[in-house]
Protein: Lamin-like protein
Organism: Melia azedarach
Amino acid sequence: MSSSVAVNHRLIFCSILALIFFFITRTVTATDHIVGANKGWNPGINYTLWANNQTFYVNDFISFRYQKTQYNVFMVNQSGYDNCTTEGALGNWSSGKDFILLNKTKSYYFICGNGQCFNGMKVSILVHPLASPPTAAIAANDSSKDSSAAPMFLQKGFLSFKALVVAVVPIWLGMGWI
Ligand SMILES: *[C@@H]1O[C@H](CO)[C@@H](O)[C@H](O)[C@H]1NC(C)=O
Ligand SMILES: *[C@@H]1O[C@H](CO)[C@@H](O)[C@H](O)[C@H]1NC(C)=O
Ligand SMILES: *[C@@H]1O[C@H](CO)[C@@H](O)[C@H](O)[C@H]1NC(C)=O
Ligand SMILES: *[C@@H]1O[C@H](CO)[C@@H](O)[C@H](O)[C@H]1NC(C)=O
Ligand SMILES: *[C@@H]1O[C@H](CO)[C@@H](O)[C@H](O)[C@H]1NC(C)=O
Ligand SMILES: *[C@@H]1O[C@H](CO)[C@@H](O)[C@H](O)[C@H]1NC(C)=O
Ligand SMILES: *[C@@H]1O[C@H](CO)[C@@H](O)[C@H](O)[C@H]1NC(C)=O
């Protein structure tokens, strides 16, 4: 077998592997919605515009990136959101890089708890059920939002598939299969 043919086979094999990998990861990834995209969680940003540009599904993540010495995140109900109050908050975070699992189909309300809520540091989102829409439609929507949403590899299915690839590929290579 000439070396150029071998290279060709390797290319085809890698393309197929990449394709399989793409489809498997598509089906088992959750989206991480980074609040404010590259602007993060800061005063003076209209997060309604950001939220309107996203579609949230159950088991997606919302994440807040900010200076932890200056800001924080409180999960509140609608009154808390409307009035910028944290009384009876449902949760609070202050690590500066907080990932929050959206595991219910409902409206979520987040505000900053140090007064900056009045300067726009508030965001409300509606989480949709996973209605198993066609994969192509999700992919199309996802790809149009790459600047503000990054995929996260989370589920065990993905990890075990990766383990399988790691385990099997060297065997194929070793057998001179490609
Ligand atoms: C943010 O944008 C929305 C949609 O255009 C608008 O309705 C809302 O008044 C804006 N909020 C602020 C605080 O400017
Ligand atoms: C807060 O906002 C709600 C509307 O969501 C309103 O009914 C309520 O009177 C406001 N004030 C307080 C102190 O909750
Ligand atoms: C929000 O929580 C506050 C404090 O727990 C409560 O007084 C208020 O009735 C709640 N509002 C809504 C709309 O659930
Ligand atoms: C923040 O959440 C913790 C529990 O996670 C709670 O003990 C604490 O009282 C909360 N802080 C405020 C200011 O609500
Ligand atoms: C969602 O997550 C919270 C905290 O992680 C947990 O207490 C709650 O039971 C979960 N709800 C569902 C429907 O899984
Ligand atoms: C794609 O996004 C559009 C608007 O941004 C929305 O109407 C539609 O339901 C979304 N489709 C899917 C499958 O997420
Ligand atoms: C909405 O998404 C589009 C496409 O990714 C992007 O160009 C635009 O800047 C976004 N708008 C906001 C307000 O985030």
